[in-house]
TrEMBL record:
PANTHER family: DUF4371 DOMAIN-CONTAINING PROTEIN, PROTEIN CBG22215. This is (African queen) hypothetical protein. GO terms for molecular function: nucleic acid binding. It comes from Danaus chrysippus (African queen). InterPro entries: RNaseH_sf. It comes from the Eukaryota.
């Protein structure tokens, strides 16, 4: 593939990720407090993620011609939101929350 001009790379136009100062400050504050935790078995972690119906890959083989580019949908479509809680010993029983969002998300 490389011999004919293709490279495997991220295909979106986003070059850098910017972070708000208040978010960076909150993370620093949390990490300072976390250093003082002696019993991690009493800590519960929460996380959320999502999956779009029209999810596309972030990387693909391309030679930057239109023929080698992935067709991008006009809409991200419906979104499945997934939340869960866990501790040092594993997931908390009966804490999985998964639901379909009521909003359709547009590609920006």
């Amino acid at each position: 593939m490389k011999d004919i001009g293709f490279v495997y790379k991220k295909v979106n136009k986003r070059k850098i990720i910017m972070e708000r100062n208040d978010i960076a400050l909150a993370r620093c504050s949390f990490l300072r407090k976390a250093k003082n935790i002696s019993d991690w078995s009493k800590v519960v972690f929460l996380d959320e993620t999502w999956l779009n119906a029209n999810q596309t890959v972030g990387k693909s083989w391309t030679d930057d011609t239109a023929q080698s580019c992935t067709k991008v949908p006009e809409s991200k479509g419906e979104r499945l939101i997934i939340c869960h809680a866990g501790t040092a010993s594993g997931f908390v029983p009966n804490c999985l929350l998964a639901f379909k969002s009521k909003k359709n998300y547009r590609v920006s």
